[in-house]
Amino acid sequence: MSGALAAAGSARTLWYLTRGTGIVTLLLLTAVVVLGITGATRWQSARLPRFVVAGLHRNLSLLAVVFVAAHVLTTIADGFAPIGLKDAVVPFASPYRPIWLGLGTVAVDLVIALTVTSLLRGRLGLRTWRAVHWLAYAAWPAALVHSLGTGTDARVGWMQLLAAVCTVAVAVAVLWRVAAGGAVWTAGRAVGAAGAVVVPLVLFLWYLGGPGSPGWAARSGTPAALLGGASAAALPAPPFAGPLRGTIVQSRPDSSGEVTVSIDAAATAGRVRVWMRGAPLAGGGVHVYDSRVSFGTAATPNLYVGTLSSLAGTRLDAVLRSGAGSTLDLTLRLGIDRVHGTVSGSLRGTAAGASSALGAGGSG
Ligand code: HEM
């Protein structure tokens, strides 16, 4: 069984992209809200005239739409969690951390509404446009709570700092807008002032009892199959190595000429399953297009899931991730008995290079 991996991005690359694009989107949204408030106060300086503030507000919001689209697409392509395109539009429907992922979806829906109504502002009229634009004040906290409630990095120092800076920036901007309203207090200004103080406080207390404390992955609604939890403790801590033995099944070519290969093997460390799909090669190998690898105990085989990162001769490398966010590199060296449909060889597991950076974080 030899072949080259055609799948371009490894599971780990997509995961990094999801996190990176999410963080850029959050920063852009924060800048857009602050610039929007700055514009509404009619503030300007010699260096930053009003048309520049308005232009920045518009262009950064369009950039945020591009980044959030990339964030959603990499999440879906990653395939680690059961999240589909529907979950990017319909909030609270995903089985993966429904509330916290759902708030990200709410934020996206609101951002879409804000963008569309702004593009159609001329036709809609100022009153309708402004009424919809107030939703920006709901979109931003929804996005922040989603970021901390869903993200792997919620307990890492730089993420805490980033969330704090974004919150202070928006709160100060709101207070500034309230103060710029002059001496006459309206109900709207009172709500704005109270919100700028109360919302950050509530967010902080929620964070302390929620994503900031251990066990959040389970409490936030991560499906048990991804969580591992107590059963993960049954697996040896990496690095580990040992013999492996199991079965291999290759399907007949389907109508498009592709085959699937399934390996199910028991090693001293645990049970490993590999599924590959691709085109059969003349020499007996398979040119793999798509793959899925899982590792766990006999009873719970999906404690770690991921994809192949390389396939050379009879050596398979895979990058897997647990529901709690730790990463594991697996290497299988296989001897294949095609007549009997069996495999034997060795399995090695190492903590992935990225895991030390993530270790402090994790989602619980
Ligand atoms: C405006 C809307 C959104 C913003 C600003 C946003 C931002 C973020 C941020 C900052 C993170 C944390 C990344 C980290 O911990 O390193 C995150 C995580 C995540 N987001 Fe979003 N997001 C939004 C919408 C969505 C939507 C609609 C989905 C899916 C349908 C989604 C899926 C995810 C997932 C699965 C994670 C966890 C990634 C991980 O494993 O760390 N997000 N998001």
Protein topology:
Layout: H1 11-40, H2 50-78, H3 98-119, H4 121-124, H5 126-133, H6 136-150, H7 157-180, H8 187-209, H9 216-219, H10 224-227, E1 240-250, E2 259-267, E3 271-280, E4 286-296, E5 304-312, E6 315-322, E7 327-337, E8 342-351, H11 355-359
Antiparallel strand pairs: 1-2, 1-8, 2-3, 3-4, 4-5, 5-6, 6-7, 7-8
Helix pairs in contact: 1-2, 1-6, 1-7, 2-3, 3-5, 3-6, 7-8
The structure holds protoporphyrin IX containing FE.
How would you explain this protein's 3D organization?
By secondary structure, this protein is an alpha+beta fold. It has 2 domains: 223 residues, no CATH class; 121 residues, Lipocalin, CATH 2.40.128. 46% of the residues lie in helices and 22% in strands. It contains 11 helices and 8 strands. It has an 8-stranded antiparallel beta barrel. β5 and β6 form a beta hairpin. α1 runs parallel beside α7, α3 packs antiparallel against α5 and α3 runs antiparallel to α6. The radius of gyration is 25 Å and the shape is elongated. It starts with 10 loop residues before the first helix and ends in a 5-residue tail after the last helix. The N terminus and C terminus are likely disordered. Bound molecules: protoporphyrin IX containing FE (HEM). The site of protoporphyrin IX containing FE has 30 residues, from α1, α2, α3 and α6.
